[in-house]
Design brief:
By secondary structure, this protein is α+β, with helices and mostly antiparallel strands. Helices cover 21% and strands 37% of the residues.
């Protein structure tokens, strides 16, 4: 334990995190018969074919999802080089109507009040779909973290010999959880900028500086 640190931001694994992305908008479809839960929506082969055709016709916006399964599992939107232990597991997609206004510039038709899906909307929506796959893979890999901000306190007490000693304790001042990624320090820096300005420093879960 570094006794020179008096204010710390302990980075800890978030073991209680549950996937809570809006699956009503972006879904990662996989076959029900799969041995591994490699997505957020289990579908049968007929439904998977409808999703594939919907993407091909432009009714849905999405792309294939590939899985690599070997002593664990990982997914992404590009194929893996190992053809023996990997392959396409399904699709990530959203309804085309949900992509309207995704770029932040909403257009409407002249005859109706419906929003038009622009080319930019579609591009941004597809990028969002790929981002959901990346985040879900981080979740599967256990790359979920939180932080606990603490200040060191010294509480004086008298021992049996009458000596006055100080007992070190840490008082929690702030915490936040659910950061996804393999570089939690980088992910958290904006959220803790006010703490860093107050002299807090990053440490690992045991309190060692990092």
């Amino acid at each position: 334990m570094n006794t020179e640190i008096t204010k710390r931001i302990r980075i800890c694994h978030d073991n209680d995190y549950e996937w809570n992305e809006d699956n009503d908008t972006v879904r990662i479809a996989y076959l029900k018969r799969s041995r591994n839960t490699l997505g957020t929506e289990a579908v049968d082969e007929d439904c998977m074919a409808e999703i594939r055709d919907g993407i091909a016709r432009g009714k849905l916006i999405g792309c294939p999802v590939y899985a690599y399964v070997h002593s664990g599992a990982t997914i992404r939107t590009t194929p893996f080089s190992d053809l023996w232990d990997s392959g396409q597991s399904g699709f990530v997609y959203m309804n085309r109507s949900d992509a309207a206004g995704w770029s932040g510039r909403s257009k409407r038709t002249r005859k109706t009040d419906r929003r038009v899906v622009t080319k930019k909307d579609a591009e941004m929506a597809l990028k969002a779909c790929c981002g959901i796959v990346e985040s879900y893979d981080m979740y599967m890999q256990g790359e979920v973290y939180g932080f606990v901000a603490e200040e060191r306190k010294l509480d004086p007490y008298t021992n049996s010999n009458g000596d006055i000693l100080n007992e070190e304790t840490w008082e929690e001042t702030e915490s936040c959880w659910g950061f996804l990624g393999d570089d939690p320090k980088e992910q958290m820096k904006d959220d803790v900028s006010h703490l860093l300005a107050q002299g807090y420093v990053f440490t690992d879960e045991e309190g060692e500086p990092i």
